[in-house]
Design a protein that fits this description.
Blueprint (H helix, E strand, L loop, with lengths): L16 H10 L7 H10 L13 E2 L12 E2 L3 H7 L5 H12 L1 H11 L13 H10 L9 H12 L3 E6 L2 E8 L6 H15 L7 H10 L2 H4 L4 H7 L20 H10 L1 E6 L5 H12 L9 H6 L8 H11 L3 E7 L6 H4 L1 E8 L2 E8 L1 H14 L5 E7 L6 H5 L2 H6 L5 E7 L2 E4 L5 E8 L10 H6 L1 E4 L5 H5 L6 H18 L22 H25 L5 H10 L11 H8 L8 H5 L2
Parallel strand pairs: 5-12, 5-13, 6-9, 9-12
Antiparallel strand pairs: 1-2, 3-4, 7-8, 10-11
Helix pairs in contact: 1-3, 3-4, 4-5, 4-8, 6-7, 8-9, 15-17, 22-23, 23-25
């Protein structure tokens, strides 16, 4: 470490961090001297030897200089304590690491991994003691430095220790530390300037310097987490009042408020997921990205992604709704959706720790926000809901969906809670493809607890879309949609083809690119779907043959030529029917 302090912390002598912070509040920079600092530490019961380890003086204090005339300089550590800032205890920890290269090496090279995060298996009295003996920091029969280091980790507020029979055996939980990064950077800049007169880093240099000496290890953060925390976001701009519910979302909103969970069902391409996301855009007041739970988590340090930590961030952002989406599939299980036992390393092996999955986490988050008086809504989208084994995925939560705010026992206890309570603030939106015949009929227990809303296949989304560039391109899309509709008009509504297949590509810059995109969607998506319907007896083969002929898709063995399809599409108008084009 390139910074050398005037002192060396004695790891055999323990001091109470809370008492030490109280002493810091009484110190007066510019008035107190090295002698008076030592006297105040001794009077308060703190270790008086810390007078020349964790403080800086003017003129520069030599290691063996005990002159009373050295005047105490102000710094970030003193300011944090004086202003009762929450990072004061963490800065005491960092000041120790700045003062003692031995302790810093232990933390950076042994207590934390290459990313900078604390290794849970090392937070164990036996494991850590063996490592300190190996490093010649202590002896086999002197466990005092080991217990002191472990105690500092807890009393300086990096973590909460797990104890068994009075001995430290692991980590109960890690505590937030990212908020201390700005203060640590100020402390590093001040200490570097005080101890090395030739090195006076500017503000834009301190972050890189801190990372170069491994300061992110001191706060249990990765380099990226440390860098992100160096420029903390200020208070979020409060959201403007939400607009009135749009007409297209009014029924969905009404049923969610009444029942709590809704399934949007319809044939492929009708925009079920699009409708669910449109609801999210409205519910979040147009701040969909800011309200996305996964994006919120991605901005937070790994060990701060707790229910309480996320609730803090949601309140700070001020978004009116938080949402997440889950893709359901045949192998999706309860342990993917509700709670699970997760293997974690510990001294001598692994342990299995119960963890939240998305439904449990969002339920706990909703409960935490409600307990703070927040009205934040939570929305969970379950895409392709009927592709999963519903009883296996939901388990006892089917009951909890019906009886909101009532605790339901689960096989796993997370954060000391053996039950889950689905709050009223959690809304669940499922989507279901009614044309998917490879799956079983929706579970009746789920059907009783959800409202099922049909999303019909209409040309309204095409007619109202402004991305076609020209009216001719829109007419082609409308006519092609009508032609496909003729093929399945006699079939059940559940297997129709929705309008999303005929929408313009967002990247299209002109009419030619719009029509080319529609042609490719027709060739590579609509036609295979219609062929499957024909195999299942839902579409008449003769009608499908005429459709192919109308669009120049007869000789498929020679390969489909998109250019030929585009040419036929350009012949369409608003009155053309399949039979008429086929005869030309």
């Amino acid at each position: 470490m390139p910074i050398e302090s005037p002192g060396v912390v004695s790891l055999t002598k323990f001091f109470k961090v809370n008492e030490f912070v109280e002493v810091l509040k009484t110190l007066q920079p510019g008035l107190d001297t090295a002698g008076s600092v030592e006297a105040k530490l001794a009077a308060a019961g703190s270790i008086k030897e810390l007078w020349n380890d964790l403080f800086t003086y003017e003129p520069k204090l030599e290691k063996q200089d005990r002159a009373a005339g050295q005047v105490l300089l102000d710094d970030e550590l003193l300011r944090a304590a004086r202003n009762a800032r929450p990072d004061a205890h963490l800065l005491v920890w960092c000041a120790q690491l700045l003062a003692d290269s031995r302790l810093e090496v232990v933390v950076r090279e042994h207590l934390t991994d290459s990313d900078g995060r604390i290794i849970p298996a090392m937070i164990n009295r036996n494991e850590l003691h063996a490592r300190l003996v190996q490093l010649a920091i202590t002896t086999q029969d002197n466990a005092k430095p080991t217990t002191n280091v472990l105690s500092y980790l807890e009393t300086c507020k990096l973590l909460v220790l797990l104890r068994h029979a009075g001995s430290v055996t692991g980590v109960e939980r890690f505590l937030p530390t990212a908020y201390a990064v700005p203060g640590l950077l100020s402390l590093i800049r001040e200490r570097a300037s005080a101890w090395k007169s030739w090195f006076r880093p500017q503000d834009d240099e301190v972050l890189d310097f801190a990372l170069s000496i491994g300061a992110h290890h001191w706060l249990n953060l990765s380099r990226n987490e440390f860098r992100a925390a160096a420029d903390p976001a200020g208070p979020a701009t409060p959201s403007a009042p939400r607009a009135a519910v749009p007409d297209g979302l009014s029924e969905l909103r009404a049923q969610l408020e009444r029942k709590g969970q809704v399934v949007l069902q319809g044939p492929p391409g009708t925009g079920k997921t699009y409708l669910a996301k449109a609801y999210i855009s409205w519910a979040t007041g147009g701040r969909r990205d800011e309200g996305h739970l996964q994006r919120v988590l991605d901005t937070m340090p790994l060990h701060e992604r707790t229910v309480e930590g996320v609730a803090d961030e949601i309140v700070r952002r001020g978004v009116p709704a938080v949402w997440e989406i889950v893709q359901i599939h045949p192998s999706y299980e309860y342990t993917d959706f509700v709670r699970a036992l997760v293997a974690e390393p510990v001294a001598g092996g692994v342990t299995f720790t119960p963890k939240h999955r998305v439904l449990s986490f969002m339920s706990a988050l909703g409960g935490e926000l409600a307990s703070r008086g927040e009205s934040t809504e939570l929305i969970l989208i379950l895409d392709e809901l009927n592709r999963g084994n519903i009883p296996a995925i939901f388990g006892e939560l089917l009951y909890a969906l019906e009886y909101r705010n009532e605790p339901v026992a689960t096989p796993y206890s997370v954060d000391g809670n053996t039950s889950i309570m689905v709050p009223n603030s959690l809304q669940i939106i499922g989507t279901m493809n009614t044309a998917d015949r490879s799956i079983a009929v929706i579970d009746y227990a789920l059907r009783r607890r959800f409202v099922f809303l049909d999303v019909p296949s209409t040309d309204a989304p095409i007619a109202s879309n402004l991305g076609y560039k020209t009216e001719r391109a829109k007419r082609i899309a409308l006519q092609l949609f009508a032609m496909v509709g003729e093929l399945v008009s006699e079939a059940t509504i559940g297997i129709q083809v929705g309008p999303s297949y005929f929408m313009p590509n967002k990247s299209a810059e002109n009419e030619d690119e719009v029509i080319a995109g529609i042609a490719q969607s027709l060739i590579y998506e609509v036609l295979p779907l219609l062929s499957e319907y024909a195999l299942e007896g839902e579409v008449e083969p003769d009608a499908l043959g005429k459709f192919r002929s109308a669009l120049g898709l007869v000789n498929l063995t020679s390969g489909i030529q998109p250019e030929a399809v585009i040419e036929r599409l350009l012949q369409l108008d608003t009155t053309t029917r399949v039979s008429e084009v086929a005869e030309t």
